[in-house]
Amino acid sequence: MDDPNGVATAPPKPGDRCPCCGVVVPSPRGARRFSILDVMILVAASAVAFVIVRPMMVGPLRAHPAWTRYLAATIAGLVVWTPTVLAMQFRRPRPALRRLTRRPGFAACLAGTSLVVLGAIAVGLLALVRQSRQGMPVRVGRPVPTPDPNWWVSVVLYFGGFVGPAIIATWLLLAVTGRRRPSSDWVDLLGRAIGTAWIVLFVIHACTGLAPLKD
Question: CB under 8 Å to 57, separation ≥6 — which residues?
Fold first, then answer.
């Protein structure tokens, strides 16, 4: 692009003003800027994750190695952030739903949220079964005893280990079918980062499962 003086300049980026006419260059369809509302949503999600993990951090887990507490905090953050970022991707402006499903960040959050919901239901049922097997019948209005944090962390880590393979399978399916359409939009990049974190968690879970084999 040439300015009025005949000097070649770089084309303006979306959201910038054109140096020739001063008109704001429109963003691509479906692109969304990072807003204050997005910051508030992510901060609220982080606060919920902190509320979930704080009783374990200040409770019996204080006597455990530091990596155990960091792992518990990471799990809590991923469990809350995955459905939060999935919901944020439905906010407008956004592309059509058919195009949105081709984004790897959206696909990762959708697969992760589905497994988190199923895992939450399974963990709840396991907690009821565990409580009944300990001779404590479940009754309405009966105080529920404080759960063993070691049991909760191990169960959540076990079910969290299934999210990583689900995301890997989803990304492979998008790539094999040729439907993968990554975007430079920040929310898609955040979704891909969350998917990568779940995969790393799966690798950690697999390594801890193989650790006894070295003995």
Answer: 69, 72, 73
User: What whole-number distance in Å separates Cα of residue 32 and Cα of residue 109?
Assistant: 18
Q: What angle do CA 127, 133, 137 make, to 5 degrees?
A: 80
Burial class (CB in 10 A: 0-12, 13-18, 19+), 39: exposed
How buried is residue 146: exposed, middle or buried, by Cβ count under 10 Å (0-12/13-18/19+)?
A: exposed
Neighbours of 15 (CB within 10 A): 11
Residues 34 and 186 sit within 8 Å (Cβ to Cβ) = yes
The model's pLDDT over 30-79, given as tens digits with 9 standing for 90+, comes to 567 788 988 999 999 988 888 877 766 666 566 666 666 777 778 888 88
Q: Are 204 and 102 in contact (CB under 8 A)?
A: no
Encoded amino acid at 208, one letter: T
Gap between the Cα atoms of 207 and 81, Å rounded: 24
